[in-house]
Amino acid sequence: RRAVQDHVDRVGIAAEVVPGPFPGILQLHRTLPAERTVSIIIPTKDKPDLLEACVRSILTRSSWSNFEVLILDNNSSEPETFAWFERIQREDPRVRVLPAAIPFNWSRLNNLGVVAARGDVFVFLNNDTEVITPDWLEQLMQWARLPDVATVGAQLRYGDGTLQHAGVVV
User: Fold this and answer.
1) Could you tell me the pTM of the whole model?
2) Could you tell me if 74 and 102 are in contact, meaning their C-beta atoms sit under 8 angstroms apart?
C-alpha cells in the first residue's frame, strides 16, 4: 500500500490509496473539488412510491452533499404524484420538479434536464433505482473527471443482490 501511495504521490495524482473490498486489492480515492456540483436527472411518470424510494435514498444515503435532483415529470396524471412533488420540493431545496409534457423519449427527457441543470457533472437515473453505497457520487466523479474518460456507468444490482448491470467502459 505504501509503495503504491509513494508512486501516486510521485506522479502527481491527488489520491489516497486505501484497502479494497478484498485482501490484496487496493483502491485510489481521488481528491475531488468540493465546489463540484452534481445534477441528478430522473425522468418519471407517476409511480410516486418508486420515485420516493429513489429520491429519499439519494437524499439520506449520499455522503456527497453538493448535488441537485431534477425530476422530469413526463405527463404524470395521478393526484398522489403531484402531492408528492409539492411535498418533496418543500422538504429539500435541492429537489426540483420540471414539467416535460412531451411524448416519452428517455434521451430527450434527459437532455431537457441537462438544459435546466446547475451542475457540472450529470447523473442519469431511472425512477426505480436506489442508492446503496454512500460514496456512490464520489466514486462516479473520480472517474468522470479524468481527462480521457467520456462517460461512467455504475454497477447496478437487483433487490436480491444479483448483478443487473456491471457498469460502462468507453
Assistant:
1) 0.88
2) yes
